[in-house]
Amino acid sequence: MKRTAKPNRRVKGNFAKGEVITIDDDEPAIEQPVVKNVKKEKQPPVQSSPALSVAELQEKLKKSEEKCQRAIHIAGQHLARAEHLEKLIDTKPDVSQDAIIEDLKKKLGEVTNELVDERQRGDEERQRGGERIADLTRQLEAEKVRALEGRNVLYERMNVLTDDLE
Question: How does DSSP assign 23-60, residue by residue?
Answer without folding.
Answer: E-SSS---PPPPPS-PPPPPPPPPP--HHHHHHHHHHH
